[in-house]
Fold these 4 entries.
Entry 1:
Amino acid sequence: MRDILSISRLISGVIILITIGCSAPSKSDTQYIINELMKKQEVCWSSGDLECFMEPYWHSDSLKFIGRKGLTYGWQKTLENYKKSYPTAADMGKLTFTNLYIEQLSTDYVSVIGKWHLERSMGNLEGHYSLLWKRMGGQWKIISDHSS
């Protein structure tokens, strides 16, 4: 009888551990992940690597980017627009993001509002952004970006 009771307790413990391990990440875990992804974007941009910068964006024709020229659909078109607007490392400068507000809307969606700043020898640029992140296949991806 003791063996059956011990096995039952062991199984219950394993089930609890599996449940804890499979639960959704906490709000602070998600914020940390988003912040780290955006820090990597800063490094990629500042080193002149637009493809690296675009890694967290949803690689889909359904990606939405809203900028000063209006709405653009698609990862490839967004990348092409960045290349036209920032053709050289001097044009790109050093990028800094400041996240002002991060809200976890659900286990799979996060809204981020913040400021961007480009430090450049030809003159600095800055503005604001609103990002909608979605967890897909265990990874966080930007599905909508409104930057101005």
Entry 2:
Amino acid sequence: MYLPGYGGHNRTVAQHELRTIGVEEELLLVDPVSGAPQAVSGAVIRYAKDHAGVTLSGKRAEPFETELQREQLETGTAPCASLADLADDIRGGRQAAAEAARGVGAAVVALATSPVTVHPSITPSLRYRRMAYAYAQTADEQLTCGCHVHVNVDSPDEGVAVLDRIRPWLPPLLALSANSPFWQGRDTGYHSWRQQVWGRWPSSGPTELFESAKGYRTAVEAMLDSGALLDEGMIYFDARLSRHYPTVEVRISDVCLHADDTVLIAALVRAMVDTAAQAWRAGIPPDRVRTDLLKLAVWRASRSGLLDDLVHPVTRRPAPAQAVVQALLDHLTPALTASGDLDTVRRLLRRLLERGNGAQWQRHVYTRARDVRAIVSEAIAQTSGTAEEP
């Protein structure tokens, strides 16, 4: 995904400039009949290259990328300033992925874990083979799909100031996006089992305060010097500075079943970045909440999603999920108003809360059909946009 360079715009409240947003979605490749994941990412990418019609609105030279497992595919948007353009790119990417998958007899689903039993296979690149050897079963079982939101920042210092200030507000994003209740054919009891599996990586999760760009680099270099990570690409923080783009990259969310939910998460992340950057410029220090408390908040969001108490980002006490979501919306309302996104976010959020997150949708389908394959079958239509939302 191409994103422009650091602009040094020195944004102010009085002279607000929209930050661009880019979204990367990881999708499962499945057999359209059995619902079982299929190790065909290489074939899908070759098909897309051989068929010029399979593109993302002509905005990306390479429409798809491989991931650790051959049963998944990554698609990404161009940098977008408006939520309408972002929505078009997200839907276009999903439709292009569905078309390319059909070309090799497969389908794509926006599910963060496979409901159907699977034995994943590592993508045969040198780096991924090294990861498989170094991390053993942790790598073998990492067939999980996330949603990564990139938002432009003006400098590394601004980016780190943002990272330091958004920490308490990330767990509600996981509760909203949670879309992985099933694992190896059974209900885990979690809304986001992906978060539990992903948490096995040694560098994953919430972070301490970095204080400055230098502090961030010092922390990253110390992690690499430990020898526990293969390379900087394995800095798997819930939110990090992108290695390739001048962005903050928020990685905590499951891939969302519904494209509208992805747009909502992206809009909330942009507002988080704006809110945090303005606080930094105003000299407001970050909340010094302990990292162990943040881990508890992430676990709580992973466990119960929107159906039980979450850890409130301000009080650190249990609070109903909808109260926590409302606190998040209140916290971001000035930034959403300035960007012109408030009405859209309210509409999308209301729709998600009425319908439920992806985990609730999956369990509803399973309760009706009593077969995990039905979840995949119905998710194929939801992902490609050929089915109406419930």
Entry 3:
Amino acid sequence: MTTDSVPTTAPPAFRVRRWLLPSALAEELDPDPACPGGRPRRTARDWLVDFACFLCAVALGLLAADGLADEPGLSNAMAAADQWIGAAAVAAVWLRRRRPVELAVAMVPASFLSATAGGAALVSLFTLAVHRPFRYVAWMGGATIALQPLYFWLRPDPDLPYLGVVLFGTLLIGAAASWGMLARSKRQLLVSLRDRARHAETEARLRAEQAQRLAREAIAREMHDVLAHRLSLLSVHAGALEFRPDAPRAEVARAAGVIRESAHEALQDLREIIGVLRAGDSDDAGRPQPTLAALDTLVAESRRAGMRVTLDGRVTDPAAVPASAGRTAYRIAQETLTNARKHAPGAQVAVSVTGAPGDGLTVTVRNTPPDGEAPPVPGSGQGLIGLAERTALAGGTLTHGPTADGGFEVRAWLPWG
């Protein structure tokens, strides 16, 4: 299990290529810290597109102005007014990013009154389709298309038939609107993909943090299960020596031997747990995980420490017990024996393990009332809580509480098959 830190923020993905994107899109994908909350600065691409739109409006306006001389019934004053309106409309193209809706509204009457404003009207409709939802495009485009038959009826083209020129103008308006909506959909797709990537990065970070938290909890449980048993032996025998300094020499020597052995085993367990952490996998590194067969060794160790413990094992096929159930049963017995040693010194402890495939595995640890008084041993109070969590993770149930005769009982059921 590794506890490497996970970066909390993703590196910006478009900072190097920001000048290639439209300013609005670049601001959504990668906000510029230089202008927080304000209008995004124009990128190089914005300037190129703006110049291209301006030149397009100028070119279409010049083409329309060249045809004014051939338009029948158009006076010089009307032609001059047409060109002045067209020039103002072309100049207004530079406002297309700041005021797309207002520009499109103004271009509807301007394009109806002036032929040279037609290019600017197409640019404004394209800009509206890029920056605003479809309903704006539908209103402005529909109004412009509705005025086309009236416009060409009042100002017919000398070279093209009436229906042909109306159809051609409608197709130009539809093409400009469609092109703008296509550009808008591509922008929205890029933003959506970026949002999905950010959400995926956030979910991955949360999963990594959860894995780290679960790993820490597993380490804490393992430290408690392994070391609490050893250290409780140290505390009990050291307390006995403190309260009975005049004990027989043989008893003092036996207690000192248990203390030395328990301290050595605690250091060995701690070294192995640290090795597990360094190896990064608690199941494959360090010492082997305990199984149900290790209960005999655990009970024998408790007896050597002076406890009165009996073990009743009635499992039909111990070799067939799942590894997770056997390990959980061992940890339950280990923790309850540690608690009995600390809180019920001198009591008789009975450990019972029964079960069969399909019926589950039942572990019962019961102790009689304590025999006399003993020096208090501090405890964290989390042992039974940890056992309940461990049992629940294994799919079983755990109950505990005092018995009628003043003792204490812990009973757990674990699934098997």
Entry 4:
Amino acid sequence: MSSRPLSLTVAAAVAVIFGLLTIVSGGRAIFGGVDMGAVVPFVLWFNFGAGFAYVLAGIGLWRGGAWAPMLALGIAVATALIFAAFLWHVLTDGAWEARTMGAMILRTGIWTAIAALALRGKKPT
């Protein structure tokens, strides 16, 4: 039986599922010709690429990889920085969709929580 805390198991599963959903939705928007309205290209491309990192981080957390908590923290920080850049875009009258605001709030919150759980569950080296 694994000594991994249940919260970390849930965080790992959320990361993988969220990552796969992000890859599919981002891929549809970028490559599938789906009209997503006033997308902000740097946010769309970041989120699509980050989806692969989400999956990798989730697998690493699941397997107990020593590198996984730092990857989760890196994802959280990078997402917060992209969110800040998106807010700047909004404040300077760039075109945007309300769902992007909600998605960035959600992504930043989820990855902040995953990183906190991962760092708390990190085994001392």
